Amino acid sequence: MTDAIDFDPNALRDKYRLERDRRIRDEGNAQYVEIADRYAHFSEDPYVEVPIDRAPLTDEVDYVIIGGGFGGLMAGARLRDAGVKNIRMIEAAADFGGTWYWNRYPGAACDIESFVYLPLLEETGYVPVEKYSRAPEIFEHSRRIARQWNLYDDACFQTSVTDMVWDEAAERWIIHTNRGDAMKARFVIMSNGPLNKPKLPGIPGIETFKGHAFHTSRWDYEYTGGDVLGNLDRLGDKRVGIIGTGATAVQCVPHLAAGAKELYVFQRTPSAVNVRGDRPTDLEWVKTLQPGWQRRRMDNFNILVSGGYQDEDLVADGWTEAFRELVHIARKESAQGLGPEKLAELAELADFATMNRIRGRIDEVVRDREVAEALKPWYRQFCKRPCFHDDYLPAFNRPSVKLVDTHGKGVERITENAIIANGETYEIDCLVFATGFEVGTGYTRRAGYDFTGKNGLAFSDAWSGGVRSLHGIMVSGFPNLFLMGAPQGGFTANYPHNLIEQAGHITYILGEAAARQAHTVEPTVEAENAWVDTIVDKARLNEDYLAACTPGYYNNEGHPQLANRRNTTYGGGSMEYFEILKAWREAGEMPGLSVA
Ligand code: NDP
């Protein structure tokens, strides 16, 4: 690798720094507008077929699970496997599916291989139809899990928790909802999702737009025609603008391009778009899979994308390829006794080479030289979510599609009928916000409700100085409550993998609690402090890398040094985190938990 460099690393470092600096904004996350009040309609559910009408519930159940995405489903399935009958799921949407309920924009699909992404494939016997599942297949798989584990029984859909209080005397959680419920639960599991609350850009004039506007996670098919597979047949006479060029836009732009009379893509930072290479499942290959294959495949993928070594790369796609070279270098050079600094330098060179290939692909596909140049990403590969798509770049060869590159500045202004960028006015009929989801805002703001634990302590206050937890799962002062998700937990590109591990861990704790006839379980402050220290310590590992990155939600919008280290995921990687959970379970006696 070092012998074969055909680029100037210093020139690339300078270019990356320049592109980063022109995007840094002092206001960081405050540049975005919360979807609330006058913007509340942007988060209304356009997919509900039959609005529910039911009497408020004031009964008691043993287990309430809040959130019907993969986290909640995994927790529900594991509890059922453990013999639990009394489970109530609460979900704001009208069905299970979580992110795959909401994200039905045209082209929505998952770019993590279906055979590792879709949970419980062996248990359900389901065989994904392609290497990368499209959104409807994943949504349906969520429903399949819910059916197989009887999670539709007693589920409360179209129900949003508004508030929750720990009743100390009764040792029950009282859960209030927008349906007037005041139900009681012995144990509550919350899986509210990491990217669940859409956000809007704080562009001046955004409130004045009189054309049609919606966020990608609430797609208005009444207006555009077509469905999640495309065919937007009502846009033939429409001028459409889309703001944002992240992973979502990369998937829906080709469909907007095919349907709209004119499409304006407003770009602040280009995504790095690598080859997708989707293909139908080879059923002969499926026949060769041996029991336990999914766990092995998930582990194999996760180890590779965490920078670990495996003899074989089972998934062998753009994700694992991205790490393969880095791991190869690390192994080879470590054998030669090189120190971490030299290794980091070599990893950077490999990264430059990969990004050069990604930029080269743009030159090959996009005909207009100026457009091709504007579409090139100038940052290291994991500064932003890597994208994999084969139709995004060609969309810019259509005469009806115009890339409006704002050179890192973003859209200037929105008027009644137009978008202003680079001093030019672009009149449009429809505006699509592909501007992503809240990251880094308060936990309870994203969940949509606050809750009160022992001694009247509000959760928002408990976490006001940053996340504190044992393993990202339990919080002192909040007995019988379990959180699922990434803060202080394990981050992996294959997000459900972390949820599966956490669901198993929670089920173990609940099983132990039942076996001991415990009324309450709660971490000790000491155990929690020790975990917080571990998180803070490990968080330093990634900071230099992130500080050199162009802004985005991966690096606290360009200000990683201002981010609270306590709010990060476990910096040692998800595989190490899973090992920690496993060792904790194997230690028995649930160290650090107070069991009453
Ligand atoms: P992102 O947050 O990734 O992208 C938001 C986009 O909006 C960025 O391009 C951002 O630009 C742009 N933007 C924000 N403000 C402005 C402005 N004022 N003017 C112009 N542009 C602006 O959201 P996505 O919905 O695309 O993706 C969110 C996440 O969802 C992904 O990172 C991924 O984790 C997940 N996802 C996963 C998929 C999968 O296949 N598994 C598919 C789709 C999404 P800038 O970059 O400059 O901030």
Task: Please supply descriptive tags for the structure shown above.
596 residues; alpha/beta; FAD/NAD(P)-binding domain; 2 domains; seven-stranded mixed β-sheet; five-stranded parallel β-sheet; 20 helices; 21 strands; binds NADPH dihydro-nicotinamide-adenine-dinucleotide phosphate
Structural class: alpha/beta
Whole-number tally of structural domains: 2
What is the average of the pLDDT values? 95
Low confidence ranges = none
Task: Indicate the CATH architecture of the largest domain.
Answer: 3-Layer(bba) Sandwich
What would the principal axes of the Cα set say about the shape?
globular
N- and C-termini, Cα separation: 59 Å
CATH topology of the largest domain: FAD/NAD(P)-binding domain
Radius of gyration of CA atoms, rounded to a whole number: 24 Å
Bound molecules: NADPH dihydro-nicotinamide-adenine-dinucleotide phosphate
How many helices in DSSP terms?
Answer: 20
CATH uppermost class of the largest domain? Alpha Beta
Q: Describe it for me?
A:
By secondary structure, this protein is of the alpha/beta class. It folds into two domains: 199 residues, FAD/NAD(P)-binding domain, CATH 3.50.50; 249 residues, 3-Layer(bba) Sandwich (FAD/NAD(P)-binding domain), CATH 3.50.50.60. Helix content is 34%, strand content 15%. It is built from 20 helices and 21 strands. The strands form six sheets. Strands 2, 3, 4, 5, 6, 18 and 19 form a seven-stranded mixed β-sheet that branches. It has a five-stranded parallel β-sheet with strand order 8-17-9-10-13, with helices on one face. Strands 14-15-16 form a three-stranded antiparallel β-sheet, with no helix packed on it. Strand 5 and strand 6 form a beta hairpin. It is globular and about 70 Å long. It starts with 8 loop residues before the first helix and ends with a strand.
